[in-house]
Design brief:
The complex is a heterodimer of chains A (about 110) and B (about 110). In chain A, about 0% of the residues lie in helices and about 50% in strands. Chain A is an all-beta fold. In chain A, the strands form 2 sheets. In chain A, strands 2, 4, 5, 6, 9, 10 and 11 form a 7-stranded mixed beta sheet that branches. In chain A, strands 1-3-8-7 form a 4-stranded antiparallel beta sheet, with no helix packed on it. The N and C termini of chain A lie far apart (about 30 Å). Helices cover about 0% and strands about 55% of the residues of chain B. In chain B, the strands form 3 sheets. In chain B, strands 2, 5, 6, 10, 11 and 12 form a 6-stranded mixed beta sheet that branches. Chain B has a 4-stranded antiparallel beta sheet with strand order 3-9-8-7, with no helix packed on it. Chain B has a two-stranded antiparallel sheet with strand order 1-4.
Chain lengths: ~110, ~110
């Protein structure tokens, strides 16, 4: 148990449907990051939160994507009107900012859009 | 923008032997961190080793050590006494202080019995 849980582990959805993923870090993780990893590639940054504030969003995060971290605890990543190109592994990572200087990753949610 | 390059898509090593994975990066920053993460098949990414750029001494964690050449912007990972459990995808990553990670494309390492 690394302290970062992601649900669901796998999600298959039809093109055009909306999906939502959840990430539960430990309470000490004041920073929470979302990354996307496609096959054969390294993870690419999507967005991150410090507590409940969303501080940065990548250009990869189109207007179909939205992320929240209410009360600075768990976080959700929603994709609206999914496209086949959204198929990827979505990784969440927690960090104790200025303490860890490194992430603790969750197991990821693998999304397949058919 | 920061870039991280891993030029070896795949490598293999005999069990108990030593292997070195290469990583180069490009940045204009002076303060940063470098990491190697391991991602076993269908499992989560795990931190292997971390290097602070301001430290001249190379980081070591048990069988894992790095060769950090700041001027050359090189950060290689050496795995000694390779074990079957070392079979995984290895990602090199760069982080500016208090900022996002930039990952390389990974090196798939197979340890052969």
């Amino acid at each position: 148990d690394t302290g970062v849980s992601q649900n669901p582990r796998h999600k298959i959805t039809k093109r055009g449907q909306n999906v939502t993923f959840r990430c539960d870090p430990i309470s000490e993780h004041n920073r929470l990051y979302w990354y996307r990893q496609t096959l054969g590639q390294g993870p690419e940054f999507l967005t991150y939160f410090q507590n409940e504030a969303q501080l940065e969003k990548s250009r990869l995060l189109s207007d179909r994507f939205s992320a929240e971290r209410p009360k600075g605890s768990f976080s959700t990543l929603e994709i609206q009107r999914t496209e086949q190109g959204d198929s990827a592994m979505y990784l969440c990572a927690g960090e104790r900012f200025r303490v860890d200087y490194g992430y603790t990753f969750g197991s990821g949610t693998r999304l397949t859009v058919v | 923008a920061q870039t991280v390059t891993q030029s070896q898509p795949e490598m293999s090593v005999q069990e108990a032997e030593t292997v070195t994975l290469s990583c180069t990066y490009d940045t204009s920053e002076s303060n940063y961190y470098l990491f190697w993460y391991k991602q076993p098949p269908s499992r989560q990414m795990i931190l292997v080793i971390r290097q602070e750029a301001y430290k001249q001494q190379n980081a070591t964690e048990n069988r894992f050590s790095v060769n950090f050449q700041k001027a050359a912007k090189s950060f290689s990972l050496k795995i000694s006494d390779s074990q079957l459990g070392d079979t995984a995808m290895y990602f090199c990553a760069f982080m500016k202080t208090g900022n996002q990670f930039y990952f390389g494309t990974g090196t798939s390492l197979t340890v052969i019995p």
